[in-house]
Structure formats: C-alpha cells, structure tokens
Amino acid sequence: MMNSKILFATNRVEKYGNVSGYLEKKGGFSVIIANDGNEVLRHLDNHVPDFAILDVNLPVLDGFQLCKIMKSAVFRQCETVPVILLSETYGTYMASQLARSVGAYSILHAPFATEDLLLLIHNKLVHGRGTADNAGSLKYKAKVMIVNDDSDVVKQFEHRMGQEGYDVFVEEDAGRVIHAVEIGRPRILFLDCNMPKLNGPEILRWIKGRMPETIVIVMTDRGSEFLAIELMKAGANDYIISPFDIKSVSAICEDSFKKYDMDLTIKRLGEIELKLHSMVEGMVDGVILVDTHGKTTRVNGAGKEMLRYLDINRTDDGSLVSLNSVGIKEIYHEIFSKKQPYVSFEIHTKGDNEKHFVVVASPVNGVGGEKTGVIIVLRDVTREYQLQEQIIRSERLYAVSNLVAGAAHELNNPLAGIQLCTDLVLNDPSISEKAKKYLNRVQKEAEQIQSVIKSLLTLTGNYTLSKERVNTNEIIEEIVAQKANQFDYVAIKVAKLLDEKLPLVFVDKHQMRRVFLNIIENACTSMAGVRNERCLTIQTEGCKDTVKIMISDTGPGIPEEYLTKIFEPFFTAKNIKYAKGTGLGLSIAHSIVHQHNGRIYAKSKLGTGATFVIELPVP
C-alpha cells in the first residue's frame, strides 16, 4: 500500500540496521519512529498505523507488553493492526510462543535480513487486508513464475495473480526453466510437470539446493496424484490438480506464504540457537543447566571435562543431589526461597589431580519471569591457586633468605673465633686429658653449627655452584659404599640398577651428592619402623636430553595430600610417626636441583613405599 504508515518502536534505531530507510525506499512506506513505550502509547492515541514493528527490549513498556495492550479493549482501534516483534536477546522457542500469545503476527530474531521483514509486511498487508483495487498500487510485489505451455492456463493465472498484486512472469520453454528461475528468483513457482522434456525432480532438486526459500507448487492432471506426491518428496511445497479452480490459487498461495513465514521464523530461531550453542560450547568455563527437579538438561564440553574431577551424587532417576559437599537443595533454597540473585562457593578436590573450582549458580527465568531451573558455571582456578601458593612460598623463602644471610654472618664470626681458640688450647701440651675431651666436643659442636649454617645458605641459594662434567653413577656408588655399614646395621638391602651408558651431566658434584644423600637418609629413616623386608632401590636412566635418578624405598609411603608440600621449607608431617627432622632436607634438595635447571618430585601412596625422581638436563 503506497503511503501505508508503519510505527517502528526501538530505543536504538541502528540496532537492527537501517530498517526504517529500507522500508521507506523499497516498500514506499511512511515510517514513524518511537523511542519508548510512552511514545508508542501517545502515538496510538492519535493515529492508528497500518503496521507496527516493536522492539521487545523497549524501555518503559517492552514489545510484548505493548502488543498485548494494542490487542486489548483499551486500544480497540488498534486491534486489527498487525504487529511484528524484533528481538536481539530472546532467541528461544518460548519467545515465539509468547509472541503468539500476545497477538503478534510474527517475531524476528536478530540478525535478520531486512528483505525478509519487508516480505512479511507485504504478505500481511496484501493477503491479510489487501483488495484488487489497491493491490496494483504496491511498489513492491512478490514474484510469481508460471512454467506452463498452455496459453489458456497461463492467461488465467496471469490475470488472477496480477489482481492479487503479484509480479507474474511466464516461461513456456522447458529447456530454459532453470536459467529463468536463476535470473528471476521467484518467490512462488507454479511448475507444470506434464510439459514435454521437463525433468521435474531434477529441477526441484536444483531449486531446493540453490534457492530453498522458493515456494514450488506443482501443476498436474487429475489421476496423477501419485506423481505429485513423489514430486513433493523431491521438494515441492504443494500441488494443484487440472482443471484448475483459479479462485483457489489465491488460497494456496496464502497457505504457502504462511508456511514460508513459519519456516523463516524457525530458521532464524535455529540460527540463534546455533550461535548460542557455539558460544556456550566455546566457553572455557563449564556450564550446566539443571531444571527445578535437579535433572541435568544441558552440559557443555568444558563442563563434562570438569565434572570428571568432582564427586557427583545422583538419585536413581539421574537427578543431581550434590557436587562434592555442596547440596543442590541448598542452592535451590538460596535461589528459589531466599530469592538470591546467585550463589557462589568453592570446591577443592584432593588426590593426584588436585583441583580448585569456583562455582556460581544463578536462576534461569522462563516466560513471565518464573524460575525454570538453575545454571551452574564451573571455573577452574587451579592455576591461580598454584600461582598464589608459589607467591606465598617465594615470599616465605625470601624472608628466610634474608634472615639466614644475616644470621650466618653474625654466627660465622664468633664461630671462627671459637674454633681458633679451641685449636690454640688443644695445641697447648700442658692441658689435661679431661680438658682435651671437652674441647674436642666444643669443636665438634661448632662444626655441627657451621654445617647447619651451610645447609641454610644452600636452601636460600646464597652460594656459588662449581660445575663440572660428572657421571651420577659414580656419586651414587660413593654414597652406597660410604653407608654400607649403616645399611647392614639396620638390615636394608640395596638394589642398584645403574645405566652403564649414562650420559654425563654438568653439575656441582658436592651439591648433587648432598641431594642424593638427603633422599637416601630420608628413605632409611622411613623404613626404620617397617617389619617387612626393607629394600632401597637406586636406578639411573639416560633419556633423550635428561638423566633420571630414581630412589625408591619400601617404607610406609607418603599421603597423597603431602606430595606437593614435602619440598616446602620447614614442612614436617607431625602426624606420621616416622617423620623426623627440621623439614629442611628435601627443601635443600629441591633448591639445588632447581638451580641446576632440573626437576625433583615424589610418587607414593600410603602402604606402598615412596619413589623420589630427580631429572637433570644433559648439556
């Protein structure tokens, strides 16, 4: 309808592109813009538009509310005004249901093609309220193509479809049909499958492959219904039987356009659903949708991966009961009863794969605002926790380093004086044997203090490495030979599995000896209270760019939760009866290996002994 008035209500005109300009230029409409619900109501009081396009996210009153008001007794004059709702957020089937329930003609979900909007408007204005008198004045007309070689049939169709406001063109040559369809791109195609040399199924397959939005209506003779059915299987939308009731053609077109409108809405909805699915699946956070009964309705890929680390408790019908120690009923109580906008908590898993998760649960709102379920978002913050622990350890080590450096300086000076004076007195021939005995003890104690200071300096890294090329097998052989009597005394069998072709490593021999010695002494201590066979296994292995040293014992083992903590300074497992010492031995070993660009870690379970692995780079 030339000069038909369209009320376009949106708070941001640019949100859907240049819709108003397109409708004015291509459709010949007069478009009035309203920015909020109040402006829409003021306009409706004074003017009744021919069509209304309402943004569902309008301020003051949204599109759903305005559509319902327009269809009410308050605005009786607007009751027959068609309304199309535009949405950039509500891309769900429930939004389409709500649109129909408030009386909307259709709903389009952004992004949408502006020509689709124009077509919906024309379909409704022409076929819903249009007449033969005004249809010819339309600037925009849907294209109808008639493929038929019967001139009488063609004339009837051309006359009738022209009266209905369609732009009609004809193709009588069966060999030119595909070319004509490709050039003309009709909205509706009437196809006479009885034309000589016309391959109906082939044309239909081509059209549905290239232009699936084209509506194809098959024209066939009476008695050929089975042929029409086969062609509909091949892609035809509908069929009409000859002799044709030309008056029924309009109704067939109307029904076809309704089907097209429905398919268009479903297509747009499907695109939005696909984008939403892609977005959720692309998230690094786990997303779990749960209904009001605890049934899981959707889990994204990240969520499935994270759930493997959690202790999940379910009922017999699969409903969620708890995630680790967090009960689903508690979440529902906070959200549904206490009306909390969200609930957050933390989950910490233990074991070989220690994980930390931050969990946020919030309600899922349905049509009308009722709660239809809960969305649970899992975020893996293990790395953040590890970095935080690393910072704490670094700060602790830094504080210890400063303390040790200062204490070492203050202690070394008097120690040197004590040792010098002790030596002088011991070299005096006039002192008694009893005095010598006490002086020798003083000297040993001073040496012990000096050894502790050196260990502390090693822990803090306040020393210089004297590196050389070394065969670690030689260091191990030396330590085993030195401690042979001790092994025999405590009934420890030693098994050496040394790689004869072990590559040399570039290390400080004395510091690396201290690493091996600390671990071996810890292993012997752990086996002190063991009644079964005590065995120390030392194995070396040359890998590509690494030398690996593995020291295993048959002691009681180390609890899994301690495996990441045993290398921390001053950590001691006080609840384990065989744990002794100040907690510095493994910390010193870790510091030395780290300064050699190596790696040290432990593998153990309670009751199965422990294995310490040292990996050193090969130059």
From TrEMBL:
Could you list the residue ranges forming a coiled coil in this record?
none
Task: Answer yes or no on keyword Kinase.
Answer: yes
Give residue numbers for the modification (4-aspartylphosphate): D55, D192
- At the top level of its lineage, which domain of life is listed? Bacteria
Q: Name one GO molecular function term.
A: kinase activity
Tell me which UniProt keywords the record has, alphabetically: Kinase, Phosphoprotein, Transferase
Task: Give every Response regulatory domain span.
Answer: 5-125, 143-257
Q: What is its EC number?
A: 2.7.13.3
Give the catalysed reaction(s), semicolon-separated. Answer: ATP + protein L-histidine = ADP + protein N-phospho-L-histidine
Per its UniProt record, what InterPro entries does this chain match? CheY-like_superfamily (IPR011006), HATPase_C_sf (IPR036890), HATPase_dom (IPR003594), His_kinase_dom (IPR005467), HisK_dim/P_dom (IPR003661), HisK_dim/P_sf (IPR036097), PAS (IPR000014), PAS-like_dom_sf (IPR035965)
Q: Which Pfam families match?
A: HATPase_c (PF02518), HisKA (PF00512), PAS (PF00989), Response_reg (PF00072)
The protein, known as: histidine kinase
Source species of the chain? Candidatus Brocadia sinica JPN1
